[in-house]
Amino acid sequence: MGKSYPEIDQNLSKFIQQQHVFFVASAPLSEQGHVNVSPKGLDSLRILGPRTVAYLDVIGSGVETIAHVKENGRIVLMFCAFQGPPSVLRLHGRARVVRPHDPEFSELAPRFCVYEGTRSMIVVDVTRISTSCGYAVPVMKYEGERTQYAAWVQRKGPQGLKTYKCEKNARSIDGLAGLSE
Question: Domains (ranges, CATH) in the chain?
Answer without folding.
Answer: 3-168 (2.30.110.10)
